[in-house]
Amino acid sequence: MRIRTFDEYQAAYNHSVEDPEGFWAEIAQEFQWRKPWKKVLQWNFEKAETKWFPGGKLNITENALDRNVRERPNYPAIIWEPNDPNEPSVTFTYKMLHEYVCRFANVLKSNGVQKGDRVCIYMPMVPELAVAVLACARIGAIHSVVFGGFSAQSIADRINDSACSIVITSDGASRGNKQIPMKDTVDDALIGCPTVKKVIVLTHTRTAVSMLKGRDVWWEAEMKQVTSDCPAEEMDAEDPLFILYTSGSTGKPKGVVHTCGGYMVFAAYTFQNVFQYEPGDIHFCTADIGWITGHSYIVYGPLLTGATSLMFEGVPTYPDAGRFWDIVDKHKVNILYTAPTAIRSLMGFGLQPLEGKDLSSLRVLGSVGEPINEEAWHWYNEHIGKGNCPIVDTWWQTETGGILISPLAGITKTKPTYATLPLPGVQPILVDENGKEIEGNGVSGNLCIKFPWPGIIRTTWGDHERCRTNYFAAYPGLYFTGDGCLRDEDGYYRITGRVDDVLNVSGHRIGTAEVENAINMHTGVVESAVVGYPHDIKGQGIYAYVITESDPDHEVDLIRRDILATVSRIIGPIAKPDKIQFVKGLPKTRSGKIMRRILRKIAEGDVSNLGDTSTLLDPSVVDDIKSGALVEV
Ligand code: 6R9
């Protein structure tokens, strides 16, 4: 599956278009299957149905663990770097990780978890998080990891949506100089979760926690009760492997479902080719396992490759803004994969944090999560890569399972701010508003994909129709990404950002509707409208226009603070608006639709050219909003 030159890239690309099934079957054969598949691919985009390798039987952990235990038992699988640099880092070889996963898989079994059950995981970035994920996969339970920054309410919503029977958590998390309670938050969530019968609690920060008799058990005590012998469950390629919730333009987050066979093939294929992993390399992905990037490029992609994955518990600015560079130096990191937000925030500290840090081990730099601006690209290239490391700007989504458009490190010629070319096996197409293909180069449009790849979303948990309408209905016969895109004269792709009501704040996806619903829960709020605006560090900031029952003139700051607290409680701190403007009315059309285009322009500070406002019910609200706009001049 490994492509090593640009000629090979082009040959592989052509092969993948001419004979997609043959192309993917060859790659899939490199894995360990218990029984061969009956068909390579069955698909129908009109119905949002895709099956890869149906009838094939496997267990992803036999490929990620057992195979490596046979081939390289003492090779490091996971290196864990703790939040506190004075504490020792920990290395798990493939043999140790295999044993740990099997033992914990037996703990899950002894607590009643069976194949097909949903397991919620809410944990800090400790090795046990990866162990919990893999233990679920070992016994065929479906993991649903919830990012540690989400609120009790968000955890409860996710648990209830997929009826999880068990939660795995820890007493607390260490992030920078803060200790964050986790079990406490889970306890709050579980008040509203009747399906949860058990909670397994890892001891990590030694924060005091309440342990409910009959429901809550300690990780460490349970581990002593079981053996480390746990044969892997036989799974069909199309059995669900995990659910990961992500925001869309409407309603609550949806549970994106990925399956065992296709996801395995795609995570490993993309990891190997994009990063050009070589045995001995240390791969450091700075994402949290609570996001898709962590699933695919901290856990599954690297382990399926027999690679060494470095997992970091803390934050880039603790104990100081040189922490990433300390880690690169200390562990001789070869591949660094991070987000533009982190680069921009570290750029703000200047070059001093880089002094005395040896970054010469670095070979490949990756970027993910949001468009990377020119300035950040050059800083990353010059000051971190010293002009010697290819930058792979990887475009993909929770729904795509793995990278779709990206340079292959050292093989594809890069261009600042461009994700460049599709991986072999990926067929992008640009369409206009009416779904008509925009052909040729030097054009832009909405980005769609016209043929399935093995990592494509299979369904949204419990609501297949939602999957169909969200991704396959806008342009019949195509998968619609929600992103706008430019294809330049060289045929290179540059993703320009979402064209729907999804915000991307510091690389985190947040739906405007979700934030509005949370704001509207605050007492005295009548209505609100949320839009994104350009933010120097976060990429996008959240701007909220809020109508309150009474005139907030005297207590603006207090109400603002309370609204922020409400949003934190309902969703989590990542969804807190950066700006809240109190308004008397919102610009609505006669049919009652909010004209967000106008609100976006005002939030961007571009009030001179608001376009046609004649269809508004009451055009005067626009002047009112303009006069109170919270924009720096
Ligand atoms: C992997 C991940 C997906 C959305 C996606 C797009 C944006 C991701 C990008 C990028 C420009 C890149 N996005 N990578 N935009 N260049 N290299 O981030 O998944 O959290 O689901 O977000 O992020 O807008 O549609 P997810």
From TrEMBL:
One of its GO terms (biological process) is acetyl-CoA biosynthetic process from acetate. One of its GO terms (molecular function) is AMP binding. InterPro entries: Ac_CoA_lig, ACAS_N, AMP-bd_C, AMP-bd_C_sf, AMP-binding_CS, AMP-dep_synth/lig_dom, ANL_N_sf. It is an enzyme of class 6 (ligase). Keywords: Acetylation, ATP-binding, Ligase, Nucleotide-binding. Residues 514-593 form the AMP-binding enzyme C-terminal domain. Pfam families: ACAS_N, AMP-binding, AMP-binding_C. Residues 65-452 form the AMP-dependent synthetase/ligase domain. It comes from the Bacteria. Residues 9-64 form the Acetyl-coenzyme A synthetase N-terminal domain. Its EC number is 6.2.1.1. NCBIfam families: Ac_CoA_lig_AcsA, PRK00174.1. Belongs to the ATP-dependent AMP-binding enzyme family. PANTHER family: ACETYL-COENZYME A SYNTHETASE, ACETYL-COENZYME A SYNTHETASE 1. This is Acetate--CoA ligase.
